[in-house]
# Entry
Amino acid sequence: MTETTILAAYGLLVLLTILLQVLGGMQQLSLGYLMSSRDESRTVTGMTARLGRALNNSVVAMALFAPAVLILVLLDRTSSASLLAAQVFLIARIVYLPVYAFGIPAVRTLAWLAGFAATAFLYLLAL
Amino acid sequence: MTPELTVLILTTLLQIVTFVLYAIPANRELGPGYTMSARDREPTRKMSDRTARLGRAMDNTFEALILFGIAAIVITLTDQSTPYTALLSWIFLAARIVYIPAYAFGWRPGRSLIWAVGFTATTLMLIAALF
# Structure
C-alpha cells in the first residue's frame, strides 16, 4: 500500500462512519425526520451522538492528513518513513472509530494522538 | 487536467455560490450587527427556515467535497482516470447541484435520495482508486 492508497482507504473509512451515523440516526430520529428538511433540530444520544463526534473529528483529521500526503507525492519525497507514518495514521484512525463508538476513554485519546503525531511527522518530512 | 479535477473545481465553485446564497439572507435576517460581532451569544432574531436549510446544505457540501476531493486527486495522481471514474464524477456534481434546491425547498425524500447518489458515487470512486 502506498501513501495515496492509504489516503483512499481512509476516505472509505470516513464514508463508513457517515453510513453508521445515518443508520443510528434512523433508529433514534425516524427515517421521516432524516428525510425532512430538519427545520426543528433534534439531538441524538449515546452511540449515535459519539459516532457524530467521531465523524467531525475524522473530517478534521482528513483535512490535515490529505494535504500532507499529496504534498509528499507531488514533490516525490515519499520514503519508507512517510509510508510508515501513513500506516500508523490509518491504523490509529481505524482504532479510533470503534473506541469512540463504544465510549472507551483513554484509548480513544491515545489513538487520536497517534494519528495527530503521524500527520505532524508527515508535514515535517514535507518541509 | 482529468475530468475528476474539473469536477472538483466546479464543485468548489458551487460551494462558493452556496455560501453567497446563504450569507446574503443570513445577514439580512440576523442583522450585520450580529454577524460582524464575535457571536458570543445566540442571535436575538431567528433565521428563516430556508436560510437555515441553506446553511445545513453548505455544511454537508463541505463534508462531501473533502471526500470527493480525495477521490479525484488520488485517481489523478495515480493515473487511474477512466471513463467510469469520469462518469461517477459528473454524477457526483449533478447530485450536489440538485442537492442545494432540494434542501432549500425541503424536497422529501428527494433530498435524501440525491445525497445518497453523491455518497455512492464518491464511494465507488474511492474503491476504484484503491484497486
